[in-house]
Cardiolipin synthase (CMP-forming)
Amino acid sequence: MPQYENPWTIPNMLSMTRIGLAPVLGYLIIEEDFNIALGVFALAGLTDLLDGFIARNWASQKSALGSALDPLADKILISILYVSLTCADLIPVPLTYMIISRDVMLIAAVFYVRYRTLPTPRTLSKYFNPCYATARLKPTFISKVNTAVQLILVAASLAAPVFNYADSIYLQILWCFTAFTTAASAYSYYHYGRKTIQVIKGR
């Protein structure tokens, strides 16, 4: 049986806020309003720091839903940012394609894990009910590094037109490092597989 838990925790609300900020950031970048976009991106980053800090320090605020929602919010935010920055000619198309492809596969894996860990009879109401926790996700170390590197590249790319360094060689080196950590992260999930999933047993 799945474990019943309260999904309305502060970290989960912060993750939802981050998801809501993603299209706003995308619009600002497409409109080339990079100064405001930097401020909104800083706010999104603050929600990411806060939800992790709260979940680690208050047991009542930690949830299985949060273990999936936090990285999902990161992936949605990063995907929209990379597509938008690519449209603004600030990030190369191959790198964005690589990142989006990896994230689509990981999100599909999360939905598959949810289905496989749901007790029978499996129904849509059970599947989409956030109160029923069936598995907790544990990201790999290189995946955490990759997320940090991807966000650093976003911040650097957003600041590039503001501070006039869009053609910097250091930005291009960061593109290469981001590609490397993305590939390494994808391999880590393939290699460790089930070790990144903790099935929750009913009480």
Residues 143 and 185 are 5 Å apart (CA to CA). The longest strand covers residues 135-137.
